[in-house]
Amino acid sequence: SSGINAEWPLRPGVFCFWLLSFRTTYCFKLLDFIKPTAEILRQAAKEKVIRIILQFYRNLLTNHSAPRKAAELMIQGKVQVVMGQLIEKNWKDEDIKEDVEHVKGVLDEMLQDMSTFDGYLAEVKSGKLEWSPLHTNPAFWRENAQKLNQNDHEVLRMIRILLKDEQDPTTLAVCAHDVGEYVRHYPVGKYNIEKLGLKERVVCLLDNDDPKVKSAALLALQKLMLNNWEFMAKTNA
User: Fold this and answer.
1) For a FRET experiment, which of 34, 75, 168, 195 has its CA 20 to 30 Å from that of 128?
2) What does the pLDDT look like over 37-58, one tens digit per residue?
3) Between vectors from CA 219 to CA 213 and to CA 223, what angle results, nearest 5°?
4) pTM of the model
């Protein structure tokens, strides 16, 4: 397949990244290669390629002078999701399982150490959203809804871009959901949603082919239009 064949031209570069990652002085410059190698790792079929990338990540998380930054970039690149997939596989090379467990353990611990909003921000910056407690837990939104206004509404602006350009149905549905939760827990934010053009983006999702995207968009628009969403939710329960 094209995924398998694509590994080989990139393998020498990955090997060089791994070698350089043993030198702390080079680690900071290697951070730019976390996301590209994560994409290679998703498609890789050869155990040698997988092992080199895993050891590259392991070095960045241990040898690097700023392992938190390396971990944040890996989380943005959804490396922890790939680790969850790889840990379920049977490997001829037993060292791969150990490397997977180590990288996954470090990322899980780092994710717990982050504040919930830091984790949310990292996910939004990754451009790929998934249904997780960061999105579905009302407690998160009660505590953090107003934080979406920080840095000139940075998060809302990123969500607007995703609603315009992203094709992944799950990401679109979660974005629409988040818009609804934002105004549900921060009613004054309806003005920001209008001003920044997010309502228009959500309305466009009503024409999406995916029924889950349509449903999420409709629910978000209902929250935008109603002053007492909690009352309606209890009435319909």
Assistant:
1) 195
2) 988 888 888 888 899 999 999 9
3) 140
4) 0.57
